[in-house]
Design a protein that fits this description.
This protein has 4 helices and 10 strands; from the N terminus they run αβββαβββαββββα. The protein has 201 residues and is α+β, with helices and mostly antiparallel strands.
Length: 201
């Protein structure tokens, strides 16, 4: 739990503010999971603070919901292309991806039970960035990764909005976004390494 709270604090996901009179804040809860190794041993214990989306109202604290899910055929075609060209393929899992999206509406959330600040126990969290569980979290994450890739010189392919291509001096780099995972391949290893390094920051 402390690791998750530290991440949220560093990422500045919310400001603690007095509760506005006309606002009913959404609730949140802790979700706990045990991550296992392939051999069945415990890798680590994981805690995630999750917004409870069922208390959100369309048009009030979210407008659009969209998750960048790719048809498996696109994944297979990309891997088949990489194999036929003898390209290396990298897979990246973006850690805490849904915590990076910018909140465009005014969303207030209750402080998590048991960890509310004593002097400000009646305050609420005004969200600056999304949390897991928010209806718009996948949408805002996708907007964030698109902005990053376009600023890095990639273009969205007309065939699929989750596939990005960058051509440079006759070489090609391709990035496929699948929710919070990325598949990167191509023959421009310098660009691929640059993209991987920038995504790791």
């Amino acid at each position: 739990m402390q690791e998750e709270l530290q991440t949220l604090k560093q990422n500045q996901n919310w400001d603690l503010v007095p509760k506005p009179d006309d606002v009913k804040p959404i609730s949140c809860k802790w979700v706990f999971e045990v991550k296992m190794q392939p051999d069945g041993s415990i890798e680590r214990y994981k805690a995630r603070l999750v917004a409870r989306e069922f208390s959100q109202q369309c048009g009030l604290d979210y407008d659009e919901t969209f998750s960048p899910v790719v048809n498996i055929i696109i994944v297979r075609v990309l891997i088949a292309l990489a194999v036929s060209k003898a390209w290396k393929v990298w897979q990246m899992d973006v850690i805490n991806a849904f915590l990076y999206g910018e909140v465009n509406q005014e969303i207030y959330m209750e402080q998590t039970k048991g960890l509310a600040i004593k002097e400000k126990h009646e305050f609420v969290c005004k969200l600056r960035k999304t949390l897991y569980g928010l209806k718009q979290a996948p949408t805002t994450w996708y907007e964030k990764i698109v902005k990053f890739l376009v600023q890095s010189g990639y273009t969205v392919t007309p065939a699929n909005s989750k596939l990005f291509i960058k051509k440079h001096e006759g070489k090609l780099t391709m990035v496929l976004v699948y929710v919070d995972n990325l598949i990167i391949t191509g023959d421009d290893e310098t660009e691929i390494q640059r993209t991987r390094d920038n995504l790791s920051i």
